[in-house]
């Protein structure tokens, strides 16, 4: 038997292993680079803000709806901003929802549907203006908590923001869903004079 024929299977294996190793050497740095870029640019660092708010009403209606419930009247408007801080990447907002809460009591979603979908370019800020007006029945514990906060001179309201975002890094597109809590504090509105929140606050991701 020819010596070349005896060595050909080994030579073939060596060739396959060599080509495989060359592919690994070529793709591993690219894969690591892509992973680093993806971890850096993905929208985990994205946080909305409430720049300001006006609380025109947050008080209990006169009289009792029942022995155990009162009616809470509310009128809140906020400036809600979204900042895309990246220099080259865009964000597409597929859906936006905002809901106001007093404690665990849902005051209601924004009166007007927030605009979506829309695209936000790099280094860009978009400001929306959701407002919440209406009345809701609350239990005696919530009514007592509100009366206590009014007496102490500060009432606390939370705006919950839910976002569905589409994010693109190179050829990869992915959809993310996030929920944020934005906590606001106001002096109690009185004598038809709205209370103003102008400190600005960052919204934090919640589960």
Automatic annotation (TrEMBL):
The chain crosses the membrane at residues 24-41. It comes from the Eukaryota. This is Late embryogenesis abundant protein LEA-2 subgroup domain-containing protein. It holds the Pfam family LEA_2. Its main location: membrane. It comes from Oryza brachyantha (malo sina). One of its GO terms (cellular component) is plasmodesma. It is a single-pass membrane protein. It is found in: Membrane. One of its GO terms (biological process) is defense response to other organism. Residues 80-170 form the Late embryogenesis abundant protein LEA-2 subgroup domain. Keywords: Membrane, Transmembrane, Transmembrane helix.
């Amino acid at each position: 038997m020819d010596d070349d024929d005896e060595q050909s299977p080994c030579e073939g294996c060596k060739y396959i292993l060599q080509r495989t190793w060359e592919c690994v050497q070529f793709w591993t740095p690219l894969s690591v680079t892509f992973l680093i870029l993806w971890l850096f640019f993905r929208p985990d660092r994205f946080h909305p803000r409430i720049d300001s708010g006006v609380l025109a009403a947050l008080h209990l209606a006169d009289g009792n709806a029942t022995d155990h419930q009162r009616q809470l009247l509310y009128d809140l408007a906020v400036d809600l901003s979204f900042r895309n801080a990246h220099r080259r990447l865009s964000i597409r907002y597929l859906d936006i929802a905002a809901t106001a809460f007093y404690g665990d009591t849902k005051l209601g979603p924004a009166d007007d549907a927030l605009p979506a979908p829309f695209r936000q370019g790099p280094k860009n800020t978009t400001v929306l203006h959701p407002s919440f007006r209406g009345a809701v029945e609350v239990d005696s514990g919530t009514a007592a908590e509100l009366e206590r906060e009014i007496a102490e001179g500060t009432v606390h309201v939370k705006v919950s923001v839910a976002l569905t975002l589409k994010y693109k890094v190179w050829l990869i597109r992915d959809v993310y869903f996030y929920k944020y809590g934005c906590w606001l504090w106001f002096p109690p509105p009185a004598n038809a004079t709205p209370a103003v929140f102008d400190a600005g606050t960052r919204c934090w991701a919640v589960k």
